[in-house]
Amino acid sequence: MKINDLIVAELARLEESKTFKYETALESAQAGVVKVKKKDVVMLASNNYLGMANHPLVKKAAIDGIKQYGYGVASVRFICGTQTIHLELEKRISKFVGAEDTILFSSCFAANEGFFASITNEKLGLDHYKDVIYSDRLNHASIIDGQRLCRPETTDKKIYNHADMAHLERLLEEDRDKNYRLRIVATDGVFSMEGDLAPLHRLVEICRKHDAMLFVDDSHAIGVCGTSGRGTPEEFGVLGRVDVLTGTLGKAIGGASGGYISGSKELISYLRQKSRPYTFSNSLPPPIVLACIASFDLLSKDKSIVKRLQTNTAYFRREIKNLGFTILDGTHPIVPVMLGEASIAQDMSAALLKEGVYIKGLWFPVVPKGEARLRAQISAALTEKDLDRALEAFKKVGKKMNVI
Questions:
Q1: Is 10 domain-assigned?
Q2: Does 71 share its domain with 195?
Q3: Residue from 86, 140, 157, 251 carrying the catalytic annotation
Q4: Which of 135, 222, 269, 333 allows an S-S link to 247, with CB 3.0 to 4.6 Å?
Q5: Residue 220: active-site member
Q6: Which helix (H) or strand (E) holds 88?
Q7: Total domain count for the chain?
Q8: Which of 140, 220, 332, 395 is catalytic?
Q9: Is residue 288 domain-shared with residue 268, that is, in the same domain?
Q10: Residues 378, 281 share a domain
Q11: Which of 192, 219, 275, 295 is the catalytic position?
């Protein structure tokens, strides 16, 4: 059978099972209100939490990046792809998240893939060893794929129930007398499907007690959580106490591209030598680097940006519940509006777009069967008028579809 025939059959199956995903093209810059099919619609599906993707100062910095340093570097870091601005951005991130040092990647996906294999697949002076990774059941695909690169003969992998600290402790206790070289606990800081936060204060305590390394992907928290946007460590009062902190520059920090790993100086120096996605991928283009520096500058100087995001989030969460919709409670700008069936999520997403709201549905296998939802994502770029317009559309469509 030809490969194209197999692909056609699989596409038909995906469409029939309601897992087929259609893309909707934007005709404008990413912002609180975007243009789709020549119509202005309220954006509730973007990771642009702080509105940095279209912020005038961030755009100016990106333009300056091209003027001063060119479009791209055409090289990996260790050959001739390191400019002074790359080093400056790494310093800015380290200071912001409370780490000794930082290493940049093309994405956080690449960072997560680059971390696990470079640690567990290397002897580090020992000929015979075994490591173990304890991973939250709802961790992001990039963490899962990163762990798949770990060789089974050197790494055991165990799953603990979502945010279940008692289960994690039981697993660690069961392994207390096993002669593992390294114990690594891996978790998202914010889980992107639910919008809930990992209990980092408890994780720090548990990892210290069991001599385990704590790895946190804070992609949906950097710039979002904590009083100044320093992520879940700030939110839970453990800033500077997470062993390995990864994150993205492609969401709240501006939404272009890029990721990072922050940690001890020794760890980062080691990763510069051993992490394959870092060694063999071009370094970040200058426009992105200078734009990210500008974003971190804005975050450090203007506390109102994070405050506006949190105010908008609280307002939307309160009012969508008042309309009669069921949401997953929390404080994060990811607001899952629970609908149950995939077909309802698909139909409601399409109906809301016609009413001027851009929002996407999530259904199995992205979320469990029977838990289909619309995932609203609130931004500091939205005004209260924008939110009210979106809420009015939810009210109209929800009543028409007998959801409320």
A1: no
A2: yes
A3: 251
A4: 222
A5: yes
A6: helix 84-97
A7: 2
A8: 220
A9: yes
A10: no
A11: 192
Q: What is the pLDDT of residues 196-230, one digit of tens each?
A: 999 999 999 999 999 999 999 999 999 999 999 99
Residue 293 pLDDT: 98
Helix (H, G, I), strand (E, B) or coil at 100: coil
In Å, what is the CA distance from 394 to each residue of 122, 196, 278, 338? Answer: 53, 23, 44, 13
pLDDT value, residue 15:
76
Report the pLDDT value the prediction gives residue 171, as an integer from 0 to 100. Answer: 98
Residue 154, domain extent: 56-301
CB atoms near residue 350 (< 10 Å)? 13
HSE value, Cβ hemisphere, 13 Å, CA-based, for 45: 19
- How far is Cα 393 from Cα 375, in angstroms, rounded to an integer? 15
Long-range contacts of 150-158 (CB under 8 A, 24+ apart): 150/116, 150/117, 150/120, 150/121, 151/120, 151/121, 154/120, 154/121, 154/129, 154/130, 155/120, 155/121, 155/130, 155/131, 156/130, 156/131, 156/132, 156/180, 157/132, 157/133, 158/132, 158/133, 158/134
Write out pLDDT tens, residues 323-339.
Answer: 999 999 999 999 999 99
pLDDT tens sequence across 144-199: 999 999 999 999 999 999 999 999 999 999 999 999 999 999 999 999 999 999 99
Please, what is the Cα angle at 23 between 388 and 250, to 5 degrees? Answer: 75
Taking the CA atoms of 153, 103, 141 and 189 in sequence, report the sign of the dihedral they define.
positive
Going across the sheet that includes 259-263, the strands are: 101-105, 259-263, 244-248, 213-217, 183-188, 131-136, 155-160
CB 130 within 8 A of CB 180: yes
- Say if CB 282 and CB 72 are below 8 A apart: yes
Q: What is the mean pLDDT of residues 381-385?
A: 97
Question: Which amino acid type is present at position 304?
Answer: S
Q: Is 192 a catalytic residue?
A: yes
Q: Is residue 94 situated within a structural domain?
A: yes
Known catalytic residue: 158? no
Number of residues assigned to the chain: 404
Domain of 383, CATH number, reads 3.90.1150.10
pLDDT at 345 over 80: yes
Kindly state whether residues 316 and 295 are assigned to the same domain. Answer: no
Rounded Cα distance, 8 and 267, in Å: 46
